[in-house]
Amino acid sequence: MAHAYLRRKIEERASLADLIDSTLETVATRGDDPTVEERSQIENWSTRVAALDDEIGRLEAQARGNRRFDDLAGRVARDDEDAERREAARREAPVETRSKSFGEQFVESDAFKSYRGRGSMEPVEFEGFLEQRAAISLAVLDLPPQMWDGPSPYVTTTPLLDVLGRERVSQNSVEYITWGSADPQAGEVAEGDLKPEADIAPTENTITLKTYAHWKAITRQALEDYSRIRSIVEGKLRGGLANKLESVAAGVLTGSTEIPSVVNTDLLAGVRQGIGTVEAAGFRPTAIVLNPTDYANLDLDAASEAGNGPVRFGTFWGLRAVSVGAIPEGEIYVGNFTEGETWFDRNTTSVYMTDSHADYFIRNLLVVLAEQRAAFAITEPNALAKVTATAPALAKAAAK
């Protein structure tokens, strides 16, 4: 009944809507405004439509509520039926005999019942008390071999980069200014006389950063089976970039023709002269950069002079030594490297991984790419001194 009543209201509402639409179309066809009678009819019909909309909404909500109630009542009834079936099945199931504990079996045994409280009683045996297990197989388990990464990887060091001045830049081309030699000296001037102009001559320089990069391909299966391989390859790529930058920085240092030179047959004495040259230009030396062989020869020379035997001193004339393999043997650089050579760094090393390379996608290969942009320049040549030895220090020590 409720559905039939709701259907009648919906039909009435649709009929009134048709009447309103028909009247409005008639008015539009005439091309004038609705008459008073037509306007009254449209208003009455619209009022009735609004009332029907409210009533239809209530009836629809009530119908939805009834359906939800019927669904709930049906689920409850089905749950009750399932519970009754489970209870009936439980009552009809055969009662299982509860196994007696070992204590109960001991108390009910003939040996315990006949025991008089003195001496030893007859033994009581329990069925299944001690069961013999199957023999343990001593065969070696078929386990895969353990993966070992090998010896500890080589630790990349960049002693030259560590002592250079470093400037973070945000563009690929950099303009920088050099200010010539040491600070100019002021003159003595009488009061009222013309003061002299300071000799300060800045020079504008432009340098373009270069990109250093390399890559390595890895299969997807290798990454799945051995997850550490990515970090190992990435570490190798980063180390290779650091080695390249160290070599480029050394090449800029050794290739400069503006750095003052000191020549001496004795490396140790030449280092001291180089310190004096830098200090005379108005700079405070911070380090000595030299080839590992020259480092060893200077150590032997210093030990021989001190009479202490083969002791590694590690510092010369108060400056720490920096051993760099890319520096040629027989050349030693002394000075303030923070001021003397500058490393223009666009960013830290960037590492990317992709399969977008040639046909690597269908080969199931991934490319790991590492790159870095950088440039090096001698920004203050007078802050450095190049010491050239005409005879190695080791030969001098051996001649003593």
Give an account of the 3D structure.
- The structure is a single chain.
- This protein is α+β, with helices and mostly antiparallel strands and 400 residues long.
- It is built from twelve helices and 13 strands.
- A six-stranded mixed sheet has the order 5-13-9-6-8-7. Strands 1, 4, 10, 11 and 12 form a five-stranded mixed sheet that branches.
- Among the domains are: 1-28 and 42-57; 159-181 and 203-399, Major capsid protein gp5 (Major capsid protein gp5 fold).
- A hairpin with a 2-residue loop joins strand 7 and strand 8 (319-323).
- It has helices at residues 2-30, 36-92, 102-107, 110-113, 159-163, 220-225, 229-255, 267-280, 292-306, 337-340, 360-363, 393-399, and strands spanning 165-168, 173-178, 203-208, 210-219, 261-264, 287-290, 315-316, 319-323, 331-335, 341-345, 350-354, 365-378, 384-389.
How would you summarize this macromolecular structure in one to three sentences?
The chain is α+β, with helices and mostly antiparallel strands and 400 residues long. The chain has twelve helices and 13 strands.
CATH names the topology of the domain at 159-181 and 203-399 as: Major capsid protein gp5 fold
Output the helix-strand order. Answer: HHHHHEEEEHHEHEHEEEHEEHEEH
* Full CATH superfamily name of the domain at 159-181 and 203-399: Major capsid protein gp5
Number of helices: 12
The rounded distance between the terminal residues' Cα atoms is: 127 Å
Shape: flat
Question: What Rg, in angstroms, do the CA atoms define?
Answer: 49 Å
Q: For the report, how would you describe the main beta sheet?
A: 6 strands, mixed
CATH top level class name of the domain at 159-181 and 203-399:
Alpha Beta
Q: Ranges with pLDDT <50 over ≥5 residues? A: none
What class, by secondary structure content? Answer: alpha+beta
Question: What is the averaged pLDDT score?
Answer: 81
Percentage of residues in helical conformation = 40-55%
